[in-house]
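Intended use. Records such as the Aromatic amino acid permease entry shown here are meant for training and evaluating sequence-to-structure methods. They are not intended to support clinical decisions.
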Amino acid sequence: MRSQVLLLAAALPTAVCFTGSLPLPLTRCAGNRGQSGSVFPRWSSVPGTPDVFPPVESDIEIPQEESHGSILSNSALVAGNMIGAGVLALPSVTGAPGFVLSSTAMVVVWGYCLCSGILVAECAGQGRSSVQEMAEASVGKTAGNFMCAAFLMSNYLLMVAYICQGASSLPLFRPEFCGPVFTSCMKDFHLAPLLFTGLVGSVSLWGPARFVEAANTALVGLIAISFGGLVATGLPRVDVALLGLTPDASTLPAMLPVALCALTFQNVVPAVSKNLNGDARKIKASLAIGSGLPLMTYILWNAVVLGSTGSLDPNSAVEMVSPLDALAATSPALASLVSVFSISAIITSFWGAAFSLMIELTHLVDALMSERRIGIFDTIGQFPMADDARSIDEVARHDQNVKLCATGLVLVPPTVVSMACPDSFLTALDYAGIYVDPFLYGLAPACMAYYMRSGDGHRAQLPGGTGGLAFVAVVTSGYIAWQTFLRMG
């Protein structure tokens, strides 16, 4: 119960979204499930800031913007967003149901995510870059702020999960590296999450942009190399008989939230829709291909781990890294590959969630601290406008204070929760996969699409008419109610 309360407390800063009708742009800087990206809001998209080139009325007809990117490039965007730290969690929850049942469940979850992703693309159209903008365009500003709160809560839960797992994965925190006395102190006082956040979080948010980008690119390369090595080395060790063991269907509900988190890609769908200029055929193809490849990767990974270690007893399924530890124990080469892959996946996923929170909370803190809302990100190309040197200094101090406050809101709440509940990796993913993500990317898009379809000129992309929308809404609501009932019981 304490861990559940503390996990919910990590999302309390989102309550400031309801302090007023603040225009909060909700643009995902990165994917919270996989690698970090480089999607930044434009200068003119920040509410309350002056346009360098104000709009001018003209009778000249401006041609439609051509599609930006191809099906292949946008499929890669979707796939890169999915593959990340979710791979680490899957073996811990797929062992008890067994390979066949868990793989079948992943295919079903993928089908649901694909349908909801098409719905998100329908609501996004060509110009809406976030679920908040979709909600404001269909239901109203209050709904937009509520969607902003759900988005922030999702990222906070993921931050808790990544910090908990990262604190136990970094080799610097092991006795052979820092000595038994230091390791014992970190374990007794739960200091590993604090050190992980201080090292990894401070570098990502305060480090030079070029260094962070280069480090992220290098880590993504390590993920690809180490994962390929794991599959190539592990496949010859797979015992087919272990894959056919009798499954325990009663453990399937515990697997579904983690699978849903691992297969979620809807956060990048607005970017895909904009890149392809709202072309429904290309969008559907990009989503199907981009999400289908990670699905096959997850199933292959599931086969390697379970075929090498066997299905777990249901009572031991809560042990987070036991399947990976069992796989690593089979050979020194696999142990090294598992370590490299785990660390790289956790850091890149942590950076993605941190960047997303940083952008959203910076806009919020800036609006609350001053009427002048001037961006602070050099990479976005935003520069303060001041009349004299004194005002420039004031703006610089203001921006520095905003960045400090936003950094504290990004890092402190999830770090405190991770220190209090260091074994909350799966628990945090459970909350995200049971409540936040199904609402944010399932139930809400279905409701928004229903309102949008009642207007003129709206093009439906999900087949089935109102019945298709009702199917997504009913399945999502039933899933949330079912999972809640099981956990209450």
